[in-house]
Write a structure and sequence with these properties.
By secondary structure, the protein is of the alpha/beta class. The chain has three domains: 2-97, Udp-n-acetylmuramoylalanyl-d-glutamate--2,6- Diaminopimelate Ligase, Chain: A, domain 1 (3-Layer(aba) Sandwich); 101-320, UDP-N-acetylmuramoyl-L-alanine:D-glutamate ligase (3-Layer(aba) Sandwich), CATH 3.40.1190; 331-484, Protein-Tyrosine Phosphatase, Chain A, CATH 3.90.190.20. It is built from 16 helices and 26 strands. The strands form five sheets. An eleven-stranded mixed sheet has the order 11-10-9-12-8-13-14-15-16-17-18, sandwiched between helices. A six-stranded mixed sheet has the order 19-20-24-21-22-23, sandwiched between helices. A hairpin with a 3-residue loop joins strand 9 and strand 10. Helix 15 crosses helix 16 (474-484). It is globular, with a radius of gyration of 24 Å. It binds ligand UAG, adenosine-5'-triphosphate, 2,6-diaminopimelic acid and magnesium ion (MG). Magnesium ion binds next to helix 4.
């Protein structure tokens, strides 16, 4: 049991009904999880308002209600605490409950449309190689000092985060690296966390279903930097149009990295091949097996973060040289007959364009490039025609198929995509709704040395159709089909 007074430390309180001098069990923001003597924090959500579950929470044993609006009927023996913003209060309560774990380790957060999973994973692997115990919170997985926990969100809720960071501290972790999504920032899922370093990759078209306008989307990302304290360092990408904007109003120390202009951390691609790149960072050369200009940029951010965290530059570059691809990020393999298959998580127009540009830069002109791509349902619809346009323009053949239709009609999503194809490229497109069939057709049509890009799902091991998830892995299916088809 914990003292409510201690949990409320630093929470900005507007009104209290009944005493706070009590002991409580746990904190919950979901009434369905309430147990005896818990604190229920009522949060206004995207679909429902948590305030409508206050009575339910009390009936299940909640002893304390934290809310923005006091209920009209007060239950005797229950303590009500009115606050201005429940999500911020929840963040502070969560930090207090778990004894402020992010003050006991160095936390690095990375935000941006693309590159968060790649950079945080590389940071985790780099610092592990450098001999530190670390934690990672990413779209693919959560890892605490080598032990993996499946991940449900890119940025989990603030109770889960604090619980995990406490576990990381208890296990002796020195560093934690986490992805900070725009949803996470907007919903205050990172409220109260103490970031030592905050990184920005880039901002391009995505999530307009949620943020409505690009300006709102930029503002959401920028809030992460606006809220940093003086003691933090913010590192941003000078190559991105909005890289400087991100740091405009931050109190943190500002650093920039860039491949194209001058910056605190300056990088350059010396050589670019199918099996890697020779890079130069701050006048020091090294080899990486990662490919693509976007990965040079990701690596530069990683280098910048390590530098801010006072790691030796040479040791860092040596370790970076040994790191391979992140799962489902430009994951490539050759089939028996010599077809190159690349599985990549590009699920935004910008990511798809970058991946296709990378392939274009390193391939010879003779072989065919076949792109298999779809767009997720219940997500930003405006990216659909753009992704179809890019795929058809930059490939010899683009096969449009399903990604995760979720609750949407797969055919409808494909129709939204096809609108984007320019008239002169129609004849290089096919529509095959079933993703496995689409991959099969690509493999059947490919000849030795041809390249097949399977985009959009990367590491994912499921496909969600009509709200039902079944096992599905692009890598597994492509490997299996190329064997069956003797390709
Ligand atoms: C759209 C969105 O982001 N929704 C998130 C949000 O849920 P919500 O606001 O819809 O919650 P709600 O259902 O309206 O409920 C409001 C409140 O009432 C409570 N409640 C609800 C029902 C009940 O019976 N009792 C009760 O107490 C809920 O616990 C909640 O506190 O808050 C929840 C708790 O933190 C999240 O799990 C949920 O993520 C949903 C599942 C989701 O799919 N989110 C995606 C879009 C997302 O967040 N993606 C980003 C990545 C984006 C990127 O790749 O860049 C991520 O960080 O993962
Ligand atoms: N710095 C970058 N700039 C542009 N595209 C990138 C960059 N890094 C990776 N990509 C592309 O974006 C895809 C997704 O990369 P990654 O998973 O690292 O991004 P993310 O920001 O974590 O995405 P999510 O929002 O889904 O969590 C990659 O598969 C690659 O195609
Ligand atoms: N984090 C991203 C992932 C999209 C991946 C794609 N495969 C899809 O399902 O739309 C999102 O939730 O928008
Ligand atoms: Mg991610």
């Amino acid at each position: 049991m914990k003292s409510l007074v201690d949990l409320l430390y630093k929470v900005s309180i507007l009104e209290i009904i009944n005493t706070t001098k009590i002991e409580v069990n746990n904190i919950q923001f979901d009434s369905r999880k309430i147990e005896k003597d818990d604190v229920f924090v009522a949060v206004k959500g995207v679909t429902v308002d948590g305030h409508q579950y206050v009575e339910k929470a009390v009936s299940l044993g909640a002893k304390v209600i934290i809310c923005e609006v006091l209920p009209t009927e007060i239950t005797e023996g229950i303590t009500y605490v009115k606050v201005e913003d429940s999500t911020i209060a929840l963040g502070i309560l969560a930090s207090n409950y778990y004894d402020n774990p992010t003050k006991d380790l160095k936390l690095v957060g990375v935000t941006g449309t693309n590159g968060k999973t790649t950079t945080t994973t590389l940071l985790y692997e780099l610092f592990t190689k450098l001999g530190y115990a670390c934690a990672l919170v990413s779209t693919i997985k959560i890892v605490i000092d080598g032990e993996e926990i499946p991940s449900t969100h890119t940025t989990p809720d603030i109770l889960t985060l604090n619980k995990m960071f406490r576990e990381a501290v208890n296990r002796g972790c020195d560093y934690a690296f986490m992805e900070v999504s725009s949803h996470g920032i907007h919903q205050n899922r990172i409220a109260g966390l103490h970031f030592e370093v905050a990184g920005f990759t880039n901002i391009t078209h995505d999530h307009l279903d949620y943020h409505k306008t690009f300006a709102n989307y930029i503002a959401a990302k920028k809030k992460f930097f606006d809220d940093l304290p003086k003691t933090s360092t913010a590192i941003s990408n000078a190559d991105d149009k909005n890289g400087k904007v991100m740091l405009q109003n931050t109190n943190a120390t500002k650093k920039m990295y860039a491949l194209k202009t001058d910056a605190d951390f300056k990088g350059r691609i010396i050589e670019h091949q199918f099996d890697g790149m020779q890079l130069e960072f701050n006048n020091k050369e090294f080899w990486t097996s990662l490919i693509g200009q976007f990965n040079a940029s990701n690596l530069l951010l990683v280098f910048g973060v390590a530098s801010v965290l006072e790691q030796d530059e040479i040791e860092v570059l040596k370790a970076l040289s040994t790191l391979g691809n992140v799962d489902g990020r430009f994951q490539s393999f050759k089939t028996e007959s010599g077809i190159v298959i690349i599985v990549d998580y590009a699920h935004t127009p910008d990511a798809l364009e970058n991946v296709l540009r990378t392939i274009e830069a390193i391939r010879t002109r003779n072989e065919k490039l076949i792109t298999v791509v779809g767009c997720g349902g219940d997500r930003d619809k405006t990216k659909r025609p753009e992704m179809a346009d890019i795929a058809s323009e930059k490939s010899n053949l683009a096969i449009f198929t399903s990604d995760n239709p979720r609750t949407e009609d797969a055919e409808e999503i494909l129709r939204d995509m096809e609108v984007g194809v320019k008239a002169q490229f129609y004849n290089r497109t096919l529509k095959i709704t079933d993703r496995k069939e689409a991959i099969k057709t690509a493999i059947k049509m490919a000849e030795p040395k041809d390249i097949i890009l399977i985009a959009g799902k990367g590491h994912e091991t499921y496909q969600e159709i009509n709200g039902v998830r079944t096992h599905f892995s692009d890598v597994e299916i492509a490997t299996e089909l190329s064997k069956i088809l003797n390709k």
